[in-house]
Amino acid sequence: MHVRKNIPLILLVASVAAAALLITDPYILTMLIFIGIYAIATMGLNLLLGFAGQISLGHGAFFALGAYVSAILTTRFGAPCTAAAALAVALVCAIAWAVGLPCLRLKGHYLAMGTLAFGEIIHITLNAEVELTGGPSGIAGIPVLSLGPFSADSDARYFLIVWCVFIALFVLTRNIINSRPGRALQALHGSEQAAGAMGIDVAGMKLTVFVLSAAYAALAGVLYVHFVAFVSPQAGDIMFSIKMVTMVVAGGMGHLWGGLLGAALLTVLPEMLSYFEDYDMLIYGGILLAMVMFMPGGLTQGLARLSGALRARRTAVRPGAVTGGRTEDPVPRRTAQ
Amino acid sequence: MSSQTAIVRISGISKNFGGLAALQEVSITVGRGTITSVIGPNGAGKTTLINVLSGFLKPDSGTIELNGAVITGRKAHAITRLGMARTFQTAQVFGQMSVLENVMVGCHARTRTGLAGAALRLPGVRAEERAVREKARGLLAMVGLAGQASMTAASIPIGSQRLLEIARALASQPAVLLLDEPAAGLNTQETRRLGELLLDIRRQGITIMLVEHDMELVMDISDEIAVLNFGRSIARGTPAEIQASPDVIAVYLGED
Asked: Which among A3, A253, B37, B59 counts the fewest CB atoms within 10 Å?
């Protein structure tokens, strides 16, 4: 059971190792690095959106803030990358806490509007604070990540760093999901009232998961800025916030692999569709629309259905697999573990 | 009732919604280890009373004591931690989570694992996780849902969801269990089983405050009954006394 559950993760680790050794094409490496960076950001957003059921249309701003803080600290103050990264994430956490405190009193559409407004404020500020941020022309010449003598100066090395961070975060996040705080944040999604009745501090838990998911976005922003070596206010604008939400929805809300699948799909698809030139956006939109209609649970649900259908074809229908039994005749079911 | 045996003391609770007085100066004492039922016609204020007791609503006046400590105005999660858990009139299970996980959420108030400990899966966390899982399985067995442990909570029938809510509330190790119409939507046989379950819970030393419309169930298992009508407490006594009370009969037969 334990090994079977880890097969996808083992496969991912193996393919990352293989890719680091075998792939030399800079175009493909760059794309894989971007997928990794977006997957880190969407993993955090999935915690908030998919698991805890709280919308945010302002997470692009946390991504941009992480990128900007690290860029400013390294270019203006000559801070070492690791210190700049740590400070950037910590500062974004503090900002997310301050923003979340009033915003998370809102629900549904109102929360969406509140976070959208926050994103817009950050966007305008980054444009206007020319002294600090370089305004619309942004900041260039950002150094590449380095830790002591090790410098991520090649695409292959950067690829490895990004994906090691992703895998480490994936394991930590999975541990959180399958534990007391993880269950508490999923309970918020099910029923805030019942969560409160179970002794969960609903407001506190919402704030915690909001700050946590902002930290993922900030870390992704840091990894982005030291790879691209340039940042402008466009990095975390509203379109990017919406793209992050789309990645989570298309990949699968409330499923840890969803963020990665969504990030991969929405990064690769536009590249592939560029073959269609003028019609690329039309086809892109069509594909997303079809996904929402036919796979409302995202790619992970689609894959689960597919494997379920294959398994059903191989084995005869198990008793009790159809509906839940009444309480007086518990259906013979394999219990977990 | 002497003060030694009272576990919940509701004194002069009033709650208004706009011009509507949902509760007016309601005083009820719940004896430790009893099943105390609150009955009354629709709109009598029974659910409002549960919501005020469990911290979902703030009363306009009056006090509530739990184990001698005043809990009026405390938040819902704090009241659960102090030992009073509740279920809901319309079952509110965590639909996307498994039946087992639902009960494990119930252990939240009595466990400690935080974010960092959970992320790093420290040894103490593993032990706590195992204990929580064991306890949740035990409670599911007690309410008769052991066979559905791995199903999603939304996929089990409403009657089972009500039992799940009871198991989930018990997981918080309450001294007092507030049940808001647990028999609604159950058939006769299920209701009989529910009655046995509630007696079983009482035997474990947990006090039950039951809001219920099913008179047969109420009369069968209650030690004490309080009757509400239009937000006022109009009678209280044993099932036999309540059944004989002319006031109560008048309320239920619609005489004024």
From this structure: A3
DSSP at B217:
H
Domain range for B219: 6-83+174-253
A212 neighbourhood in chain B, CB within 8 Å: 115
Residue of chain A minimizing CA distance to B189: A328
Domain boundary among B106, B134, B158: B158
Q: What is the pLDDT of residues A86-110, one digit of tens each?
A: 999 999 999 999 999 999 988 888 9
To test the contact with chain A by mutation, choose from B132, B148, B156, B173 the residue with the greatest count of A C-beta atoms within 10 A, namely B148
Give the integer Cα–Cα distance in Å for A85 and A221: 9
Q: What is the DSSP letter of B153?
A: G
Strands B6-17 and B61-66: what pairing?
antiparallel
Q: Which of the residues B96, B112, B178 would you substitute to probe the A interface, choosing the one with the greatest number of A C-beta atoms within 10 Å?
A: B96
Confidence class for position A180, pLDDT limits 50, 70, 90: very high
Q: B135 with B103, same domain?
A: yes
Q: Is the ipTM of this complex over 0.95?
A: no
| Tokens coding A5 | 């559950």
Task: Indicate if B79 and B178 belong to the same structural domain.
Answer: yes
Residues from chain B that touch A332, judged by Cβ atoms under 8 A, are 147
Pairwise CB contact (< 8 Å): B132 & A330: no
pTM confidence score: 0.90
A202/A208 Cα distance (integer angstroms): 10
Which residues on neighbouring strands pair with residue A146, listed in sequence order? Answer: A151
Whose tokens are 């007086």? That residue is: A328
Please provide the distance, in angstroms rounded to a whole number, between the alpha carbons at the two ends of chain B. Answer: 30
